[in-house]
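Example 322, ligand nicotinamide-adenine-dinucleotide.
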Amino acid sequence: MKETTVLVTGGAGFIGSHLCERLLIDGFRVVNIDNFNDYYSPESKRHNILNALKNPNYRLCEGDIRDKDFLDKTFSDDQPDIVVHLAAMAGVQPSLENPKIYYDVNVMGSLQLLTCCAEHAVSKFVFASSSSVYGNNQTPFKESDNTDNSISPYASTKKAGEVLCHVFHSINGMSVHCLRFFTVVGPRQRPDLAVHKFVKAITNHEAIELRGDATSSRDYTSVYDTIDGIRGSISRLQKISEPEYNIYNLGNSYPVTLDDMLQTIETVLDRKAQVKQVEFMQGDVFSTYADISLAKSELGYSPMRSFQEAVENFVEWFVEHD
Ligand code: NAD
């Protein structure tokens, strides 16, 4: 029997590189599309995939999801069964400065990819969405909440991606899971995310910038739990007989305040931070907190790692790689 091929976009990035490794362990053939953009160091992304490259079931296709000819060729050559679409311009603050590139990659790129899936009869699609679509809604966030309240261009592109996915579900009978990730923490975490920035600054005896009064909070999730959630989604897509369009929160359901986040990092590093107080940034939501009951019941999702464990995993990697 032909093994299942999963095409992962953004497979050299933080979450994508972990996902590719996990899928290889689980016996899938994996095709990674990544353009190694310079949002952060392309060298670190090349480093992320060194292990995967040794596996004969792994293929790297370097290119851009906005390039339809490239996508067509990759789909013809590799005939994926399932697409997990992680490639994106991520990050809230830079989207305020350059919304156009966010729309170009996250919306137009997603449209190209979905079109390619429809043309090549790929009917199972996982889309990386984000907790940011909830804006400043009341917590805990449920998938059924109103998400017309984006407060950053980034969030609005993720919402647009979810809506586009629904169109392809409706017209092409595609099965789609939109997974709303909640601030993911662990080895290879992007350098623009707070845990990475704080660990780096404290290690280098530099001051960290603490936004607002430190009572804001995030539902930090270990990258290994996020990957378990994506695996649950793939397993469900493999089993279902009727097309479905579902949205799932993949959080930890255990929000941590900025103050507690800093204290945990100080404990793990056994070093005190020098703190510079700065204003809370426009575009950032105040709190995130996932209701994960739907992912628990339908994907078998059950996050097991604490925030401290996720920070410890990150620091182990950071010490070795930075
Ligand atoms: P990342 O930046 O580490 O990974 C994204 C990858 O996509 C990178 O390797 C990049 O080179 C690639 N890429 C970007 N544009 C591309 C294009 N046009 N063509 C081909 N490849 C392209 O980001 P991440 O943190 O791993 O996030 C993965 C996904 O999860 C993103 O869609 C992000 O929006 C979403 N997400 C992440 C988090 C988080 O906490 N990390 C939270 C919510 C949602």
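Summary: The pocket of nicotinamide-adenine-dinucleotide is lined by residues 9-10, 12-16, 33-37, 39, 45, 64-66, 86-88, 90, 105, 109, 128, 130, 181, 183-184, 190 (CB under 6 Å).
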